[in-house]
Fold this sequence. Notes:
The chain has about 300 residues and is mostly helical. The chain has helices at about 1-30, 30-45, 55-80, 85-105, 110, 115-130, 135-165, 170-195, 200-205, 210-250, 250-265, 270-300. It is globular, with a radius of gyration of 23 Å.
Amino acid sequence: MAGSSLLLLIDDIAAVLDDVALMTKMAAKKTAGVLGDDLALNAQQVSGVRAEREIPVVWAVAKGSFINKLILVPSAIAISAFIPWLVTPLLMVGGAYLCFEGFEKLAHKFLHSKAEDQAEHAELVEAVADPAVDLVAFEKDKIKGAIRTDFILSAEIIAITLGVVADSALTQQIVVLSGIAIVMTVGVYGLVAGIVKLDDLGLWLTQKPGQVAKNIGGGILRAAPYMMKSLSVIGTAAMFLVGGGILTHGVPVVHHWIESVSAAAGGAGFIVPTLLNAVAGIVAGAVVLLGVMAISKIWKVARG
């Protein structure tokens, strides 16, 4: 009896671990859009500090990110345990925010002039180069801004993950949410550290005597800006896909319509949901952005 009970226990543990692994994969896939944008945003946030301070700044932001997750993960578990009906509205809000943020990026060049962007960049460069500027205060401002950005993106990641595990046992929820929080934080800031040091690696290689090293270093220096741009583009596209998918899934009529259209498309059915989710994400992002702009104007008028 004891032997059979032990085997049953081992089998149950193996099944739980298998479920956890599957849900973690699903959650990681669904949060990919946020992760891509997280990488680009945080790499941009910590750029602009002196080269020897880049890694310490990334580490400071990473510690802030862990603190964010220590707040968000228990909050998500408490919501799932005591007010589970709130999970779907939170997911819808998170999906709408993803779409809004993605569309705001697309509309940036219309909402902000090139001169404004250049002036902001010039101010940043001047601040870093000026020895009279308090670099400690400058770094603290950069770190606080990056941690605020991380909190928003981490909340989106945790909300999406909670939607995946909402119907699972409490233990599985804790394991999956904690695992995603740790993996995403380590992965994001490990890659951010690598990205912000790419230019240093390229410069170091160009100073080596061998021509091969110089060529590789020059290639890295030329490729680094394009890598940042690619991360931003991929992240924006994924935000529409993930955010649109969350919104359409949360509206049963739309979700069933997309399923019927996909079934009618036959062999091309696998791509139809992706395209329709992206379109839904773009439309939702435009609507939310217009709403935010209207509220902002009304608020300014009300304040005189």
